[in-house]
Amino acid sequence: MKKELIIKIVSVLVFIALSVGVIIYANTDRPKYTITENSGVEYETARVLSVLEDNTEVDKTVENQKKGSAEIKVEILTGRYKGDVCTITNYFSALYNVDVKKGDKLSVRIDITDKDTYAVSVYNYNRIPLMIGLVLVFLAVLVLLGGKQGLKAFIGLAYTVAIIFFVLLPLVYKGFSSIPVTIAVIFVTSAVCFLLIGGVSRKTISAAIGSFAGVLIASILGSIAASLGGVTTFQMDEAEALLVAKSTSNIHMSGLFISGILIAAMGAVMDIAMSISSAIEEVSLAGNKLGFKELFKSGMNIGKDAMGTMANTLVLAYVGGALNMLILIYSYGVSFIQLMNTDFVAIEMIRAIAGSVGIMGTVPCVAAVAAYLYSKE
Predict the structure, then answer these.
(1) Distance in angstroms (rounded) separating the CA atoms of residues 11 and 3
(2) Would you tell me which of 58, 194, 269, 376 could form a disulfide with 214, CB atoms 3.0–4.6 Å apart?
(3) pTM of the model
């Protein structure tokens, strides 16, 4: 028992060391926004001391949004100009409407033209406390409802987010092919999440293998559909900005579309994989030495019930994210032929259907692996 504990501790330490090493390597030569002493742009936090003059009015033509301007006095709270008090003009329009009052904090943009010469303007609301609060609420709900398992799930999620931001993005920026890097990230992060939740067991092994297979199915279908439809990253909204970034980096844009499908499908696939694996474990424990055929059939029956709702969830998630654009397209009254041949519609349909097929493909994969493992001694 002591030997097993030592092996586990050593394995965890080695894994942590490898993760830290990869993060350090990936973030070497990380792009940084440099600011000289005499020029540049900074974004800092400021507090509204008073509203000196309010020249705004309600524009009833755009759903009662304010228009006009207001003169406000602010104190800069962070950065090199901390403590400075400035009077700035806060402009209002239908698309730019940062409505603040005395005592509110906001984000300001500081344009530096000389060492002691700068201009301050309103950038946006100060949303940092809100973001931190939402994360804490999420953590509290997970721990209150899930207890120890909920805390482990949060740690797994934090690890996944860290690997995406500090490994996947930097490596792609360095010029690594995005698809292999994304597959590796998905494999490692899903394994960590499953191990945190269930440890090393037949349940987590079957869920990990099945979910990885489902993600690969989604990527294969997405690649085939994208190739047949002529859809690449170059047809996406961010293509122009990425081309600008590509001029100063080694980014390979061609695989980013498929990588996005892989990451989007990962969460739903892991969900259904663990559900089926856990169900087969319960069936196996309740039954009396059930064989592969019986366990596989049970897993498929459970999976069939979950397929529809999970696929529905994924498709609706894509529709929700694209709702504004869909309403805009609808308002133009475009024809069916034009609609189906629009890059935006093709991209969203390939994403949604590839991810849904990945979910469906996960079901037999998990059912087969779990049935095989639980039918053996």
Answers:
(1) 12
(2) 269
(3) 0.81
